[in-house]
Design a protein that fits this description.
Layout (H helix, E strand, L loop, with lengths): L1 H20 L2 H7 L4 H14 L4 H25 L3 H44 L3 H18 L3 H12 L3 H9 L4 H9 L9 H15 L2 H14 L6 H31 L9 H7 L1 H4 L1 H34 L13 H20 L5 H26 L2 H4 L6 H26 L3
Helix pairs in contact: 2-4, 2-7, 2-11, 2-12, 3-10, 3-12, 3-17, 4-9, 4-10, 4-11, 4-12, 4-17, 4-19, 5-6, 5-11, 5-13, 5-15, 5-16, 5-17, 6-15, 6-16, 8-12, 8-15, 10-17, 10-19, 11-15, 13-15, 15-16, 17-19
């Protein structure tokens, strides 16, 4: 009886520890399924049906490895990624990394508010532009700048459950599951012509799965949560599960659009809101509503995480105070950076709603092209024994991470060459 009681007590303590450390991995991974991500996955399904599903298997592994490395660095060093880059490589390298991050993050934040507008216009029409956008921007600003990390984490964990709506939407589309599973594991390369378009879509899918800002966000959030190296085992489970869950959602988005839009000959849409509207005659009003609600949730999720990641990175790179729950005067640059991105992006979408469709996909491509810079810096840091001690990468992790970096560089080069000399 005593042994059984001790086992139960030990098990309950482990479960409590895991639940207390749950958050950074799931949130960072789910934030990748934002407005540009949902649109990118929707286009993959609309243009190639299920032919892009195999990419998600590989990108899930790469995402898990990339985010696990950053989470591990955050737990072991107690510092953010930008902090480590500045301390180890100086101002010049930090400037290049921050420049790459800011380009991708500003475009991404704009795309989040474009996604919010696209989703709410389905239900509210044109009034959403001048009512919902400023209201959402104010609420997001207040939640982040006036709250604590724990409160924000609870909100984002709750929002993560809304992504399950995309799985329901896929089943409402009634795909032929035999074809889905076949193309998941046996890729169909018959539709790769023209090569430039196929490579562009691969970069789009990978770029929305593994983002530069996501690496900065997860390391800073692990640091803010106060995770220690001794507690890292539970956080690692959180990170790897988050990578699996976010790509599971992406999988069903592609399936939904492949079974409906591709089958109906609708291969081109301008934003994810149009995807939701196009589902009505193909899969019913419920599918449209679920897709639109999911889009609104995902866009708000991203509108919090992406500017927050930027604020973390900029302040860490300059050695300023960077943490949630600080007063404005204590972390003026942190709050100022977040406020600037939110206000500017919301205003830009309000003023020019018809000229932003390209920005919804741009972050995916820009992110995939710039990601190798961030990955190379991460790999050098995580393999530094002086910083990481016994927590440096294993050989397997290094192989996967370096392979991801090399493949992204090769894909970017192919895209550039085919843009100049179409094949």
């Amino acid at each position: 009886m005593l042994a059984r009681s001790l086992r139960r007590r030990f098990l309950s303590s482990r479960i409590y520890l895991f639940l207390s450390l749950l958050g950074p991995g799931i949130i960072a991974a789910n934030a990748d399924n934002d407005a540009s991500g949902i649109f990118g996955y929707s286009l993959a399904g609309a243009q190639y049906r299920y032919a892009m599903l195999w990419i998600l298997i590989l990108s899930t592994i790469a995402l898990g490895v990339a985010q696990e490395m950053c989470a591990r660095m955050g737990a072991v060093t107690g510092k953010g990624l930008a902090d480590l880059i500045r301390e180890e490589y100086g101002v010049r390298v930090t400037f290049v990394a921050m420049f790459a991050l800011l380009i991708a993050n500003f475009a991404t934040t704009v795309s989040e508010f474009a996604g919010i507008l696209a989703a709410t216009q389905i239900f509210l029409g044109s009034t959403a532009r001048f009512v919902v956008l400023p209201l959402v921007a104010i609420v997001i600003w207040a939640v982040v700048t006036r709250g604590t990390y724990k409160r924000l984490e609870k909100i984002l964990l709750g929002a993560s459950l809304v992504y399950l709506l995309y799985i329901v939407s896929a089943f409402l589309a009634h795909p032929k599951w035999g074809d889905v599973f076949k193309e998941t594991f046996v890729p169909d390369f018959k539709s790769i012509s023209p090569l430039k378009d196929y490579v562009f879509m691969i970069i789009n899918v990978v770029g929305t799965t593994i983002t530069p800002w996501g690496q900065f966000y997860i390391q800073s959030s692990v640091r803010d949560k106060g995770v220690k190296a001794s507690e890292y085992r539970e956080t690692r489970i959180d990170v790897l599960f988050g990578a699996f869950f976010t790509n599971l959602v992406a999988y069903f988005i592609i399936v939904c659009c492949g079974a409906t839009l591709f089958a109906a000959g609708i291969h081109q849409v301008d934003d994810a809101g149009q995807v939701a509207q196009a589902l009505t005659p193909l899969a019913g009003k419920l599918a449209t509503a679920l897709f639109a609600i999911g889009l609104f949730n995902a866009s708000c999720f991203g509108a919090i995480a992406v500017p927050l990641s930027t604020a973390y990175a900029v302040t860490e790179a300059l050695g300023w105070e960077s943490a949630l729950g600080r007063r404005t005067r204590e972390a003026s640059l942190f709050v100022g950076t977040f406020t600037f991105l939110i206000a500017t992006s919301a205003l830009l979408v309000m003023l020019f709603p018809k000229n932003l469709t390209t920005l919804i996909l741009l972050p995916n491509v820009v992110g995939a092209v710039l990601l190798p810079i961030v990955l190379i810096l991460m790999l050098r840091l995580v393999n530094n024994k002086r910083l990481m001690g016994e927590y440096t990468n294993s050989r397997t992790y290094n192989i996967i991470a370096w392979a991801t970096t090399v493949i992204l560089i090769a894909l970017s080069a192919i895209l550039f060459v085919t843009a100049i000399h179409p094949m």
